[in-house]
What we know:
This is GH3 auxin-responsive promoter family protein. Residues 388-494 form the GH3 C-terminal domain. Residues 297-362 form the GH3 middle domain. InterPro entries: GH3, GH3_C, GH3_M. The structure is a single chain. This protein is of the alpha/beta class. Among the domains are: 24-71 and 293-373, no CATH class; 377-505, GMP Synthetase, Chain A, domain 3 (2-Layer Sandwich). The chain is built from 17 helices and 18 strands. An eleven-stranded mixed beta sheet has the order 6-3-7-8-9-10-11-15-14-13-12, sandwiched between helices. Strands 2-1-5-4 form a four-stranded mixed beta sheet. α10 packs across α11 and α13 packs across α14.
Amino acid sequence: MNIIGNIIKGVIDITEKLTPESSPSDNQKEVLNKLLSKAKDTAFGKFYSFEDILESDDIQKSFSNKIPYFDYNKINEEWWSKLHEGDTNVTWPDNPDYYALSSGTTGKTSKRIPVTEDMIESIKSAGISQIIALSHFDLPATFFDKGILMLGSSTDLIEKDDHLEGEISGISAHNIPSWFRGYYKPGEKIAKIDDWDKRVKKIAKKAKEWDIGAISGIPSWIELMLQEVIDYNKINNIHDIWPNLEVYTSGGVAFGPYEKSFNALLGRPITIIDTYLASEGFIAFQARPETDAMQLVTDGGIYFEFVPFKPEYINQDGSLVAHAPALTLNEVALNTDYVLIISTVSGTWRYIIGDTIEFTDIERAEIKITGRTKFFLNTVGSQLSVNKLDDAVKHLEEHYNIKIKEYTICAKRYDGEFYHSWYFGTEDLIEADQLAQTIDEYLKNANKNYRVARSKALKGVKVKTVPPSTFHDWSAANKKKGGQVKMERVMNEDKFEEWETFATNN
């Protein structure tokens, strides 16, 4: 009998039952009140009269009316740059303890996003909530005393003056609670290795010493790590070395496009749980097995707003027009794309995180990520979000029984005519023309706007296949391997020209 596992499982079950139900909408009103109250004496709070907002009849409406939208460049130029000049109490009391470095999916230059001690506590709290939610999943008691392998960025953070810098996954791992360290793998020594390939080789060598029950990380990098463990240890699948592996916690991107290639590395099905941890905070996690949607963390350190994702509200660079309406949790509708806006305990205010989401259950505040504001393919009116592109690629996998591990697309001009030009990362041999015809027909049937575009300005579809390693090498060359690095799903023509040159020469 697994005594420790049964005890832990019992505690989680009891804690879940004793945790009172709360209204996500009421939680959000309380969070906004706390954010404004704590930051009212900062330079930002005084400039935008937080005290007046707190005294208004409708704090949520007053907040959205008085404070403009900020993307990273705007808030960094106008406010966070003051922190780098030595100012304090700028957008949050005191100074941040960390900066999360993030180049996202759109550029080489790292953003430096403040991460305060309050945000660290908020992330820990959300993590505990996710652990409690495991009581909803049918997991054996043996799962609860196994190791948890977290493959993020290096925990060897960069020391800069009075703070530390690194990717958010590295910062989070750097701050794991003491009670969790006994379960945490690969352990502090390996986790500090900055070179991703060297870190993965160390994991492969140590793998047989660990009894892993759960793994966590970006799907593309997790797949490469699992393949390295399999190859090094000369086994058929990952369950040959980790027989008790029960859970994979995905994050950062939709898991759907990776499902087939990921499952090929397993000996049996496991539970997949989606999470949404961004450089700006722990935003959502999957709280129940009946859905793959994620529940917003509405009682933590983040206040959410939602802007309808309509062309008239979006500038060419993905930013919002000043008059774009922001909705509260009370005002949203199902199955509608929204630009996600956050305000946080790190002094991030009305911040355009760059993701678009849709609600699948408003009462539970459950969402799915549908894409990026900059990765919305609408050059010729096709109006394709990333989730629609993902669905089309998944259709190809099922139709031809192939695995497509990565992809990217551009609306590119050939002799003055626009074509959707796709690159698929696959090891399977299949005619590109077949893929082009099938994905074109699928999108015509699945998307009215695409069908109209194909009858007008969108001339056709072109497809090329390359080894999946080409995508990984591109990420390594342009940013860095592992961590939070994700592949650009949609590229503009200039970036796509760089990609094509790279893909041809590698």
